[in-house]
Request: fold
Amino acid sequence: MSAIVEEHSHHTAPKGLKRWLFTTNHKDIGTLYLLFSLTMFLIGGAMAMVIRAELFQPGLQLVDPHFFNQMTTVHGLIMVFGAVMPAFTGLANWMIPMMIGAPDMALPRMNNWSFWILPFAFAILLMSLFLEGGGPAFGWTFYAPLSTTYSNDNTAFFVFAIHIMGISSIMGAINVIVTIVNLRAPGMTWMKLPLFVWTWLITAFLLIAVMPVLAGAVTMVLTDKFFGTSFFDAAGGGDPVMFQHIFWFFGHPEVYIMILPAFGIISTIVPAFSRKKLFGYASMVYATASIALLSFVVWAHHMFTTGMPLAGELFFMYATMLISVPTGVKVFNWVATMWRGAISFEVPMLFAIAFIVLFTIGGFSGLMLAITPADFQYHDTYFVVAHFHYVLVTGAVFSIMAAAYYWLPKWTGHMFDIKLAKFHFWLSLVSVNVLFFPMHFVGLAGMPRRIPDYALQFADFNAIISIGGFAFGLSQLLFVAVVYKCIKGGEQAPGKVWDGAEGLEWKVPSPAPYHTFSTPPEIK
Amino acid sequence: MKICRLVVAFIAMLIAIPSLANSAYNMRQGVTDISHQVYELHMTIFLICCVIGVIVFGIMFWALIKHRKSKGVVAAQFHESTKVEILWTAIPFLILIGMAIPATKTLIAMEDTSKADLTIKVTGSQWKWHYEYMGHDVEFYSLLSTPKDEISDLKEKNENYLLEVDKHLVIPTDRKVRFLMTSDDVIHSWWVPDFAVKKDANPGFINEAWTKVNDEGIYRGQCAELCGKDHGFMPVVVEAVSPDKFDTWLNDAKAEKAKAEAESQAVAQQTLSKEELMEVGEQTYMAYCAACHQPTGLGLPGVFPAMKGSKVVTGDIKAHIDILLLGRPGTAMQSFAKQLTIKQIAGVITYKRNSWGNDTGDVIQPSQIQREIDALEEGK
Ligand code: HEM
Ligand SMILES: [Cu+2]
Reply:
């Protein structure tokens, strides 16, 4: 207790390991989340390098198929739950209180917990790779009965790890909602909220709605495997396809959980560097809300080949086509924001522009995948892999990098090395397309996903993809270098780092003091 | 106007792509009416996306070039227009309706499995396909035939590397062939790109699909749903032949089956030498068992048990035979009673009991396997 009292009286951060372990400060916790996410991004990336090395040429050279499957599975799990989601939670922690003029998150102790259980979850997941029989090898989608009857006993660790990740996400989401609803500074009305706050609020509701569904799915996997239930086993009256319905009822909203905050970031950065207000603020809010609602009724577009009845296939085809309309509205709004602005190309803006183009390409392939008869051909090929990497890497991950460059000076008080950052951007931009664009071609030509070896007609493209992969992977080390240098030092950043930037976070000095808005700011 | 010309040129270029069909980078047009329709849908939606992309990105890059701060422009102030918002919600919506209509038509046709001329039951199991010609008493397994040495880079890879099997699925052209898909273990997915047929094989359930092939030929596909370790190694090869040739083939297959049964009965009366059994056993082991239990007999610790020093393999012979015949329910160990002949089973058991230091000296005769099969039948 006395430590907390002291902390409050001094208004500075305590020192050492204890500061980080016991912190309830939203900025510290935000930093922890972001650094954790970066670490996971590198570990998950290393696994992707193993995958691409094996696929560099036909034949099995480096790893056996069982290990290959573990790599694709754990790569997917780590990138989704360890890299992208914690990065957004970190950004939420850092920015939401500052954006709405709140002194901190509403539930700071829970905040500490929701971060600190994460490293344990991932330690368990990674540790299972080293046990006899290896870690999960059934894909990040863990379809039953491959993950139940036909997996090894280490599946229990996977289930436990997912449970912890889910609890962490739910706690984080509750915190975001309570903070936004209760701690807005006087005068910060709903329709004045920055879009990043809006998108995160909606995301948090999605999280609370679907993470328990994921928890249910892994629990049923656990009891089917170890306790004799037959949820997904026809022999006991269950149904393996039901697993997919449950999983994708979580899974599709989940993909929007990973993109809505990104929409918020892009809607913040594009106006700042166009020096013009966001076009159609209200319609952006409504589009986000309708995407979130629609995301609950499209899940079975991942399951067109499972043998659904015709009526079901038609419904999910139409619903999926429909969801691309509000997604399109977002893109149109960003373009209209830029139109007749006074545009400049600082590093965050470069990433934002790349996001708009490349995410839209991912949206186009999504629209193609929605056409059920064509999806029969695309499904479970590299075409799908191309689709979701365009929306997730050049979408979610690029938006996270845009956000990091946008706010790094605010966080550290130093300007980052612009030359190095631009170098990082251009290398990433070129290599990411060399990496993911040809995946469309091999997918259309018929290469299934999740295979460790392939027929000869796919060889040329796979070699190119792997080269792009190594280049993209290495380029990210530049990002680490920029962040490291920026934390260590650099030119002093002013309070308002970017001349066109709007928002409360630019009204405090850089670096943002340990406690901000202890008294609420005035909102015009 | 320059932009218009560019758009036209771009579209012309894209329309030229169909001539590259069956190329290494586009969807196959395939050899059925349905696959052609699917290809058309794919190209149409692709073109729509391209046109929208050219327009939207065109406008964006125009703004990026013309409305740069460095050119001294001052930002405009507008930030709202209900009219525009309605317009760019309505237009995509209409385009999508235009797209949904042909897609619905094709989908309805694809799902109509009625009035089939021939029904084939397709069963997936780790990691092979089983085909059964319903009502014709013909059935067989179809396994990857690419040599291990090609996979491990010891030998040069042949043209059909990983897309070749020991026995093709033979179907007639110009006939509606219905497939019933199911699985013995995990979910697999049977996919032949040239037919635009991809359907999951779910354990305990039956899915339907159909095709009507226009051209004779050999068509290759793969399992599309992750089904465990050797998911990448269970191709589908279909040979479409004229109905006449198909009838001949079917009769031959029936005759062959009768012959095999007679042989098997004959074998049940014979006593084979240990050498012969060991030879058959080794071949069988490498083709059917080694995928999991490994050629070294060491298995994969924690995943697939080792045969070397195994209690079952070095213990009671009857228990050993039973596991091969019945499988181990609830594990990846399947029943081999249907897949292997009694000679193969006798061989593989003899082989396992006398390899990798398992020197039990046991020699198991086909007759013993037959007796065990009969006993199990009676027990049922
Ligand atoms: C225009 C909007 C979108 C549409 C119409 C769309 C449509 C689809 C469809 C139909 C599939 C299933 C493909 C198949 O397996 O055959 C799919 C897969 C996927 N999509 Fe999207 N999508 C859209 C946007 C997004 C976004 C924004 C994200 C994430 C940020 C996303 C992430 C994914 C992922 C991760 C998968 C594959 C999951 C897996 O099988 O492992 N999609 N999408
Ligand atoms: Cu989805």
About this structure: The CA atoms of residues 424 and 476 of chain A lie 7 Å apart. Residues A 252, 255, 298, 301-302 surround copper (II) ion (ligand 2) (CB under 6 Å). Residues 1-10 of chain A have pLDDT under 50 and may be disordered. Chain A is about 70% helix and 0% strand.
